Amino acid sequence: MPIDKTASHEKIVAAAKNEFLTYGFTDASMRHIAEEAGMSASGLYKHFDSKEEMFSALVEPAYQGLLNMFHLDTNDKEQAFGAEDVSALETAQDAKLAISYIYDHLDAFRLIICKSQGTKYENFLHDMSVMEEKKTLSFMDMLKKQGVKLNEFSERELHLLTTTNISAVFQAVEHNFTREEAMHYADTLDRFFSSAWREFFGY
What is the tens place of the pLDDT at every residue in 157-200? Predict the structure, then answer.
């Protein structure tokens, strides 16, 4: 009968999460993880090929879920714009939606935001900012094609403002806000940036 590795795998995952949250990816010790999981270091490699794979297993599902939310939000706005509904921008609650999801997967995002140096996730905020910038430019182009007059703006400034916007969302994680504090902050962000973007683009 095959050996059930489920219990051992769950112990490794729990130990790895604790190690990475405490020390970060670079300083995390496979030996410490093995000791906490109650096995030898070589035993870890029956479950994960590397420390990188172990870290990814902890954060990738939450990361992909956020990307899916991002793409669904993009599609929703494109459909609204197709119906010439500029109010989709004015009533957006992007920060609330994002922070609610982030706090549903808080440990994963603490790892990504605060502990991922040395992994493929270390440029997460930059990568999200680039995607948001491209999405924004696409939306602005759609509005212009519908005859909406917009202010002229510097794309370099847009890049910096978008980076600031994305980074602001994850400040709640960096500063260890409670969920209640984070959701209040999200409401503040939505009101602050909605007004700022309307002024910037002039719609």
Answer: 889 999 999 999 999 999 999 999 999 999 999 999 888 888 88
Q: What angle do CA 14, 168, 133 make, to 5 degrees?
A: 105
Report which of 98, 25, 12, 26 is spatially closest to residue 63, judged by C-alpha positions.
Answer: 98
pLDDT digits (tens, 9 = 90+) for 69-91: 887 766 555 555 554 555 555 44
- For residue 6, how far is the Cα from the chain centroid? 28
Other C-beta atoms within 10 Å of 128: how many? 21
- For residue 175, CA distances in Å to 16, 67, 165, 167 come to 23, 23, 16, 12
Residue positions counted in the chain: 203
Q: What distances in angstroms separate CA 16 from CA 2, 3, 185, one per listed residue? A: 25, 22, 30
Instruction: Give CA–CA dist 112/170, Å, rounded.
Output: 10
User: Cβ(108)–Cβ(58) under 8 Å?
Assistant: yes
- The DSSP 8-state label assigned to residue 49 in this structure reads S
Distance CA(133)–CA(118), nearest Å, equals 25
